[in-house]
Recover the amino acids of this structure.
């Protein structure tokens, strides 16, 4: 007589450390095959660092994040640097359950704006179904000291007369974009979140739930990196080298009311790319930035790799002229490529009266001045040193963690 079979409803065995590591191992080979230079040792190391960043961010969001007891945690930073984060934004995110009741409390601060966006699913797991709602802290009733309180739920609580925002039951995540022009001097928004329809004490995570979450990390890493390598390949196929075009990022959680203009740069050490655009008459926010072909923003703490409206010089004719180059061209609006000769360019026009597509002209740095207005200032090496030191300190003065 044969031994009795295992019960159909018996729980699956939990994975061990070696099982989790084995699930991650093949991701590297699949991702490196999607890069532009898979055999280049420097690019390979860039890829491995990127995957480490997605792993760390994945643990934070996927394994640690709890919809019942959420926290707004850093999402994209100089450490979690992929998906080309905007240096002017502090990104925070919290996992939530769209069927729950949540309260956000805090202080508005004096920063440029703070946007709250909700989404269903996530592209990191291949489950994204897009945005489910968005509002700005300035849409709320702010006390004289800037404090606020707002409830998010499917139905407004009975008898509640304060600020309320509809929460779509499909929502799984809520994110913050805390935008600043004058780094380190503007007061950042402070926002806390709590779920109101659960007990105040959080229970211990079960072994089964922990195992379920950690088994998803390989998918999280592969999608978090792969989607951006695919975007770079798409730009190459479209001939966007040293030119720009509008791209719709709404499916990847792009900011509402924000137009993205994007392209690639490919420059020799003695070359630069001159971008020129007429600044819109009205604009809530705008900026220019550069990243590498891994969709990693050039480290904006250590390099002048981004410029916003407050950091840029606008010429008398109403145009902003920005020079992208590997070496310092001695102009105010320089975007430092951080040692990379190829990479991405992104321009953001947020709730502007127009969204111009900048022209892009490759120039020899020795003759650059002939392409610029005569009154363009010369930035000396000493001045640049001071600007970069001030930028480094200002970036660290922001509430990033």
């Amino acid at each position: 007589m044969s031994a009795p079979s295992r019960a159909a409803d018996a729980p699956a065995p939990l994975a061990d450390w070696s099982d989790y590591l084995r699930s991650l191992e093949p991701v590297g080979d699949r991702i490196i095959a999607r890069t532009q230079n898979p055999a280049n040792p420097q690019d390979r190391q860039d890829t491995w660092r990127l995957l480490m960043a997605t792993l760390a961010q994945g643990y934070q969001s996927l394994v640690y994040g709890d919809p019942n007891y959420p926290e707004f945690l850093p999402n994209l930073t100089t450490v979690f640097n992929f998906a080309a984060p905007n240096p002017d934004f502090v990104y925070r995110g919290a996992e939530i359950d769209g069927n729950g009741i949540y309260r956000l409390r805090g202080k508005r601060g004096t920063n440029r704006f703070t946007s709250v966006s909700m989404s269903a699913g996530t592209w990191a797991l291949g489950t994204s179904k897009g945005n489910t709602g968005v509002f700005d802290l300035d849409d709320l009733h702010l006390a004289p000291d800037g404090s606020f309180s707002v409830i998010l739920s499917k139905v407004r609580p009975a008898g509640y007369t304060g600020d309320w925002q509809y929460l779509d039951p499909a929502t799984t995540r809520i994110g913050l974009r805390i935008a600043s022009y004058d780094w380190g001097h503007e007061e950042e928004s402070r926002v806390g979140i709590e779920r109101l329809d659960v007990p105040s004490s959080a229970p211990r995570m079960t072994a089964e739930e922990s195992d379920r979450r950690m088994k998803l990390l390989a998918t999280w890493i592969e999608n978090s990196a792969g989607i951006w390598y695919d975007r770079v390949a798409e730009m190459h196929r479209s001939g966007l080298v040293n030119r720009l075009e509008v791209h719709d990022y709404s499916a990847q959680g792009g900011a509402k009311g924000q137009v993205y203009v994007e392209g690639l740069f490919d420059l020799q050490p003695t070359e630069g790319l001159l971008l020129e655009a007429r600044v819109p008459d009205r604009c809530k926010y705008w900026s220019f930035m550069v990243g590498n072909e891994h969709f990693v923003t050039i480290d904006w703490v250590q390099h002048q790799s981004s410029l916003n409206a407050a950091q840029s010089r606008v010429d008398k004719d109403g145009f902003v002229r920005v020079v992208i180059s590997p070496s310092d061209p001695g102009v105010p609006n320089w975007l430092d490529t951080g040692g990379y000769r190829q990479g991405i360019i992104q321009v953001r026009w947020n709730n502007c009266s127009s969204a111009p597509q900048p022209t892009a002209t490759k120039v020899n740095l020795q003759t650059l001045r002939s392409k610029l207005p005569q009154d363009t200032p010369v930035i000396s090496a000493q001045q640049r040193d001071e600007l970069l030191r001030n930028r480094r300190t200002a970036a660290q003065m922001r509430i990033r963690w």
User: Anything to note?
Assistant: The chain has a mean pLDDT of 95.
